[in-house]
């Protein structure tokens, strides 16, 4: 079961959606709740509004939708508020990612994978960001996508701490990415210049993902 909190009260609960996505009634390859939340969050904060006809097939594994199934995706949007210009909206101050939880262990890689999967819908623009100085904003998400490889040189306790720090940073990370994409091109250049300065002078500093490795030996390697 996915652990979650939400500030939005809906007639159809996230528990209902979770049960549906895990049931035999949903398409075999459809997303589950955590990666669906990450995917829709990526769409919400991404470079531009994307028509539902583009992102619904990714959720439903590109299967032809029946009339009943066409109504289902609407349930998932309650977590984001109203849809404006085909873009699910997230709260400007509250971001509460939905993660899987097993006992005391929070499992966030599904959410991070879902977020990154949204990149494919606007691949060129996301790739440009990843390769720019602004790509540092994606460090916590990329860390959670592949912690075993990115943090492979760390001891178990250090790796766990780095993952916990990345999870804790996600709400601010999401809002920072949203703010970046809504900047003017001129302001983006100014911000990139600031980030370039930080990256150049801080590559030997501890990685912002929370590991004890140097940034250049950790997430600074880049995708």
UniProtKB/TrEMBL annotation:
InterPro entries: SEC_C_motif (IPR004027), YgfB-like (IPR011978), YgfB-like_sf (IPR036255). NCBIfam families: ygfB_yecA. This is YecA family protein.
């Amino acid at each position: 079961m996915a652990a979650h909190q939400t500030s939005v009260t809906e007639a159809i609960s996230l528990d209902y959606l979770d049960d549906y996505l895990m049931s035999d009634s949903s398409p075999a390859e459809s997303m589950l709740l955590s990666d669906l939340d990450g995917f829709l969050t990526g769409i919400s904060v991404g470079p531009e509004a994307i028509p539902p006809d583009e992102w619904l097939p990714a959720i439903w594994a590109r299967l032809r939708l029946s009339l009943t199934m066409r109504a289902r995706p609407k349930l998932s949007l309650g977590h984001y508020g109203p849809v404006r210009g085909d873009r699910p909206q997230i709260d400007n101050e509250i971001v509460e990612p939905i993660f899987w939880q097993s006992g005391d262990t929070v499992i966030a890689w599904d959410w991070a994978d879902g977020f990154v999967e949204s990149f494919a819908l606007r691949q060129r623009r996301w790739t440009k960001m990843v390769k720019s100085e602004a790509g540092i904003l994606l460090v916590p998400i990329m860390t959670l996508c592949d912690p075993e490889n990115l943090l492979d040189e760390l001891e178990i306790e250090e790796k766990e701490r780095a993952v916990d720090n990345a999870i804790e940073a996600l709400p601010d990370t999401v809002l920072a990415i949203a703010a970046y994409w809504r900047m003017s091109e001129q302001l983006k250049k100014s911000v990139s210049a600031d980030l370039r300065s930080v990256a150049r002078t801080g590559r030997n500093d501890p990685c912002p993902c929370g590991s004890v490795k140097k940034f250049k030996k950790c997430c600074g390697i880049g995708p």
